[in-house]
Amino acid sequence: MYKSFISALICIVGLSISHAQFSLTAELRPRSELRNGYRVPRSADSKSAFFISQRTRLNLSFQNSKIQLFISPQDIRVWGAEKQLGSDPSFSLHESWGLVRLSDKVAVKAGRQELVYDGHRLLGNVNWVQQARSHDALLFKYAHEGFKFDVGSAFNQSAEKVFTTHYRPDNYKALTFLHLQNGSDKVSWNGMIISDANEKSDIDHDLSWRHTIGGGLSYSLKNFNTEGSAYFQTGNTKMDQNISSFLFSVKGQYQFTGFAASAGLDFVSGDDPKDSDYQAFNTLFATNHKFYGFMDYYLNVPVDTKNGGLQDYFVGVDVKASSTSTLKLFYHQFFLANDVINPSTPEEISRGNLGGELDMVFGHKISPFASMNMGFSMYFPNSTTVQIKGGDKDAINTWGWIMLTVNPEIWNSKSQNPQK
């Protein structure tokens, strides 16, 4: 009887595997950084910082014609931060979600997941940061002949509770969004509506809702492509100010033989203290490391510009050095979008030019499962930069890094059954 049961179980598992696909991949990503003016201008007596951080992930995936499961635990650490023989917890769950296909067009996805739309402009995974970003969310997905329609929702709570739903005000309590996308090889468009809510404070648990609406358009020819996007933000701040802010961007790229040249503008509106409305645009849950310079001086545009907003004019070259190597060069020239008045000394006004940044990144593919990337950046501050962010305007600000990424496929049931 026992042997018959085991045989039947083996047959069932074997039949399931024959109609499904399992895969197990890993990622090991150590990165060394030498910071000497990263994020903020250095002062005359600043000392450089050097450290090595590391991300370690396992990615387990299962899918068949009806369902898909994905689990991605990760360990994030700085070398030496955890003492030897210590017992500090360091493991976390980056993603853990399930997707159920209700038909060939409709699916529902639930769990901890990355939300990436419109090139990371407002919703991105911030993959450069070792821990990256993910959300606990429910997603409804529709796709048919190039048209995609996603509706997502999230509600955050700190623990299981008997009474009240109080949640910390430094993270959103509720999030809903709708995303539309369609297009062809030459022209594509997308539209997005995002509503997010935060509790006003630890004392006042009422919600302040913010609403962002907009979209993007891209056009491609044989060697040239251009893209642009625009978003408007409304709602209320935690101080009950009406929000009226905007963002727009435009970028063009031309492909030459062996390299591509690009140029563009990102404009993020700033607040006018003389106006009763709050006019500083918040980029929400974007991957700002991708847009406003790799040195991350403007990761949080309202805070990092004292609500002055940002104009970023940039040019870049992307060189294909060989079949396995690339070199990227970018220069950003930054300006405030609005003048900034120092509250303590109203006669001191910061305006205009915020300085510039030069970014260089070299990438080399070692093998199908390993790559090496290294970068070097310099920021050139001026008096306005120092008024906004501190430091010494005459100091040289640099940042260098080297990163190894190893992401092998450990096991794949499909490769074990090539006849399938």
Fill in the keyword field for this structure.
420 residues; Porin
Structural write-up:
This protein has 420 residues and is mainly beta. The protein has one domain: Porin (Beta Barrel). The chain contains 4 helices and 21 strands. A hairpin with a 2-residue loop joins β18 and β19.
Query: What is the CATH topology assignment?
Result: Porin
Class in CATH? Mainly Beta
Number of helices: 4
Query: Based on DSSP secondary structure assignment, what is the total number of beta strands?
Result: 21
Distance between the termini: 33 Å
Roughly what fraction of the amino acids lie in strands? over 45%
Q: Unreliable runs, pLDDT <50, ≥5 residues?
A: 8-13
Brief description of this entry?
It contains 4 helices and 21 strands. With 420 residues, the chain is mostly beta strands. A hairpin with a 2-residue loop joins strand 18 and strand 19 (370-380).
Topology of helices and strands:
Elements: H1 2-18, E1 21-36, E2 49-63, E3 67-78, E4 91-101, E5 106-113, E6 135-144, E7 147-155, E8 174-183, E9 187-199, E10 207-220, E11 224-236, E12 242-255, E13 259-268, H2 301-304, E14 310-320, E15 325-335, E16 340-341, E17 349-350, E18 353-367, E19 370-380, H3 383-389, E20 397-406, E21 409-412, H4 413-416
Antiparallel strand pairs: 1-2, 1-20, 1-21, 2-3, 3-4, 4-5, 5-6, 6-7, 7-8, 8-9, 9-10, 10-11, 11-12, 12-13, 13-14, 14-15, 15-18, 16-17, 18-19, 19-20
